[in-house]
Structures are given as structure tokens and as C-alpha cells.
Amino acid sequence: MAVTDSQNPLIDGNTCGSFLQKLQGIWDEVGESDEEQDKMLLQIEQECLNVYKRKPDKTLGTIKEQLAAIAPTMEQLWQQKEERIKEFSDVELQIQKICGEITGDLNPDQTESGSFAVDESDLSMKKLDEYQSQLLELQREKSERLHKVLDYVSTVHNLCVVLGMDFFSTVIEVHPSLNESIGVNSKSISNGTLTKLAKTVSTLKEDKKQRLHKLQELASQLIDMWNLMDTPIEERRLFDHVTCNISASVDEVTVPGALALDLI
């Protein structure tokens, strides 16, 4: 509701009119509904009219009474505005933090400061809802990325076990936050981390494939020599852990150290 001279006989450059205009500005900022504005304006205008009826002369006392009549409403609206700004700041800070986690450009000093410079030109609930929807979508993406990171890390662990490699040094080479001692919520979910994990998994799978092929070649040669030399079964059993994989597929080899370099 716009405050005009025809609607409010008190607006004539006086203090009450000035306050009403300030109220209108705050309402516009916080997106107060027209119904609530109309209701509150009527109450304020009535208070101002009562003051003028009691003291028609524009004395200092009259002005003070005008201020006293409007001050509680102004205080309430200022408080509402501050609370709304805090809501915007909190949401925008979380949005910035997740965006930084995704791009890998997270600035701890900025995100831990607890505040965000809010554009106060539009503090309406509609705008706040838009930010909250954006935050919800980013939170979903963060959850999906974290799940993907944990899957990659699990795969790296299983491959390292079979290949006899140090999982810890392998995974922190991708990113230090992938250390098992660091909490799940602190894991890196950036584009760079996901790309490196995918590349690491691909490299380890290729190593596993090549090592299995080499082991199977050696096992075949070993069996041929045993047959040629009539090697006793007892001696052959010493290498069961090698020959058992002579016809295995890559995915079937899961025993720890089965494709370790020292074994080959």
C-alpha cells in the first residue's frame, strides 16, 4: 500500500508523515503483504490523529508524542528487517561454501566468518525462497558427489589390496582429505578430486589387468616345466596361490596380495 497525501492527512512534511514513508520503504524491502501494510498503517494513522486531536498546536510535545506512537512499530520492523538480512546471509553463505567445495576454490576464512554481504534491494520472502531452493539443490549435488567420492575411494582400496600397494599413500596423493582419519563431511568433492579419483581407478584397473596377464603367463610356463620334469604334487602345491588364478578373470581376483609385484 503506497502512502499518499489523500490517504494520510498527516503527511505534510511533518515527523509522522516522514516516519510513515520510512515504514513504506522497509515494507517494500522485506516484502510485507498489502493486507498487513494496510492494517498497520490504519493503526498508526489513528494514533497520529489522536495526538493531533489532543494537542492541535504543533508543539515539541506533540512531535514527541508522534514519535512515541510510531516508534514501537518502527522498532518491530527494523528488527524484522535485521532478522531477514540474517536469514539471507546464512543461506548465501552456505551456497557460497558448497559452490566453493564443488569448484575447489573454497576460501575457509571467508566461509567461516559467519557473515555475508547481503544485497538489501530485495529482501522479500519470494527472493529468500529462491535462494533456499538453490541451496537445497546444491545440497543434493553435494550428497551425490560425496557418495561418488566414497565409492571411488572404496574401489581404490580394494584394488590396492589385491595389487599389494599402499592404499594410504595412493589415496592421499589424490587429495589429503581422503585420509581415512578425516571425517566424511570434510572429504573433498571438487571436480578436480573426482577427476583424479576416476583416473586413479582407471590406472589401477589397468595395472591389475596387466599383472594378472603376466602372472597367468608365468603360471602356464611353470606348469609346463612341472609336467616336463614330473614334479611331485607336494612341490606343486607350494604355488597353489599362483596357479589358482591361471584361468581367472580380472574381477574374480580379489585375494589380498594376489597380484603383488614381489609375488610376480
UniProtKB/TrEMBL annotation:
Organism placement in taxonomy: Eukaryota, Viridiplantae, Streptophyta, Embryophyta, Tracheophyta
One biological process term in Gene Ontology: microtubule cytoskeleton organization
Pfam hit, one: MAP65_ASE1
Record's keyword annotation contains Cytoplasm: yes
Keyword vocabulary terms for this entry: Coiled coil, Cytoplasm, Cytoskeleton, Microtubule
Domain of life of the native organism: Eukaryota
Protein name according to UniProt: 65-kDa microtubule-associated protein 2 isoform B
GO terms for MF: microtubule binding
Entry's Gene Ontology cellular component terms: cytoplasm; microtubule; spindle
Entry coiled-coil feature ranges: 121-148
Family listed: Belongs to the MAP65/ASE1 family.
